[in-house]
Amino acid sequence: MEEGVIVKGIAGFYYVEDNDENIFECKARGIFRKEKLSPIVGDRVYVELLDDKHGIINEIQPRKNQLVRPLVANIDQAILVFALKKPDINYLLLDKLLILIEHYGINALICINKSDLADADEIEKIKHSYKGIGYDLIITNGKTGEGIELLKESMKGKISVFAGPSGVGKSTIFNKVQDKVVMETGDISGKVERGKHTTRHSELIKISQGTFLVDTPGFSSLDLSFMEIGDLQYSFREFAKYLGECKYSSCIHGKESGCKVKEMVEKGKITQERYNTYLGILKELQENRRKW
Ligand SMILES: Nc1nc2c(ncn2[C@@H]2O[C@H](COP(=O)(O)OP(=O)(O)O)[C@@H](O)[C@H]2O)c(=O)[nH]1
Ligand SMILES: [Mg+2]
Ligand SMILES: [Zn+2]
Q1: Residue 224: inside a domain
Q2: Is the Cβ atom of 8 under 6 angstroms away from ligand 1?
């Protein structure tokens, strides 16, 4: 039995790469269909070899996470690309992405691109606030290549996916960190983007042995309405060490008295901005529940 990761799937065929960088074209064992289990890109699987190029997927290892769009499993890291200018940074969007990614149990790395367009003070400010929360942050420039080596370093041994708004330089950076697949860049309307009207499976692009990059940006839908009200707090890293210290064990850090989280906001240990974001999303979730 060979162990490997599914890097590509096309019409019932799965391409599994083993630890020696051999690729096997595989079919899935029939039993999966009965179990309503389909192998997906990113799955770590065991393959029974038929010859030196073909095999049957016999077993899918438990997934540590699974995205829907793109359909990929076992993401280790989401690289959130933002620019401070062109387009102007939207902190609410950044925080919503972080919430979603925390919810999936994926590590987030913040990449601030277009360093040439940002002023030094604002770079320092964002570094300070997000490093304070516990996120790594890398400053890049898609044109000069600044920060790209650091970014590549952070990807080693992981499956990474890019996320972030359009126009920030995701495709540009994608092209800089690997030389296998070229992504269209610039102000294209999206019409020429690959696979727009056809179902296309995402692929893992291999950067080096054990290091992969999903070829499609993730987390484009920022709908958080599926989240449980009581779970939202766990998506805020800076709340973690105070949870359980509120007066009421059911505290969701809104209007309750004796709330440790609110106390920490007052003391400046948690920023007012992030707490406001928390309250805003909490309110959205509560209003959604009422509609049902
Ligand atoms: N000034 C500047 N422009 C950049 C940088 N990185 C990318 N761009 C440009 O920003 C535009 C959008 O980039 P693209 O990679 O298509 O963004 P995407 O929509 O996030 O994939 C393109 O015109 C790029 O050439 C950068 O670091 N500085
Ligand atoms: Mg793009
Ligand atoms: Zn509380």
Answers
A1: no
A2: no
